[in-house]
Amino acid sequence: MVLGVLDVALQLGLRPHHPGAVTPSLRRVRTDRGLDRLITFLDAVVAIAITLLVLPLVDVIPDEGATVDLGDLLAEEAGRFGAFALSFAVIAQQWLVHHRIVERVGSYDMPFVLVNLLWTLTIVLLPFATEVAAVYGDSRLAIGIYIGTMTLSSACLTLLTLFLVRHPSLRRHGADPAEDDLPGALLVTGTFVLALVVGVAVPAIGYLALLLLFLPDRVRRLLARRAG
């Protein structure tokens, strides 16, 4: 189903736009209320997902808490708390990127909506992926589910940026096209893909492969210095 939605969005959203040639599938929706409702819905989904992350931590506390040393309990569940912190940071970062994208949007079409819905699916799945990572640890499948969910989320954001580049009519009036930063989005998603491959191929590295995400900023600064 996910691949089907993505395929439809790719076929419709990446098709070159010719001024004056408006088809039903690409017709823009220009109502401000509709756009506001879409963004409000997306924000609500993110807020719920980021809240769900904490529920497994509540279950960590036993009913007879007084009989269990708190320090031992926290040490035993360190992996679960670490997964929570990382997933919280990832959802927050993904929302910030999405926020910067929709700040530049003035109208929308069905492919744009479909990719946004697919993006929310990845956000909703992240609490599940977090619990899988906490329970199954260094399992290749667990690593693949966890980093793979993040990778798909990043790919959706890159696709949204690509929509704005390919369809400037979706961009808000006065928005600077230079802010789209498609190369930067592609670099981040490519790094997620690399982290996924490394993490699954070498379970000893596993989730530490996500440290590769510090590379894109360094690469961009290096390229900027060379260009200057």
Structural account:
With 228 residues, this protein is mainly α. The protein has one domain. It is built from 9 helices and no strands. Helix 7 runs antiparallel to helix 8. The longest helix has 27 residues. The chain is globular and about 60 Å long. The N and C termini lie far apart (46 Å). About 5% of the residues have low confidence.
Keywords:
mainly alpha, globular, 9 helices, 228 residues
Short description:
The protein is mostly helical and 228 residues long.
What's the structural blueprint in terms of helices and strands?
Elements lengths: L1 H12 L18 H21 L2 H6 L9 H7 L1 H25 L7 H27 L3 H27 L15 H20 L13 H13 L1
Family: Belongs to the TMEM175 family.
Catalytic activity: K(+)(in) = K(+)(out)
InterPro entries: TMEM175-like
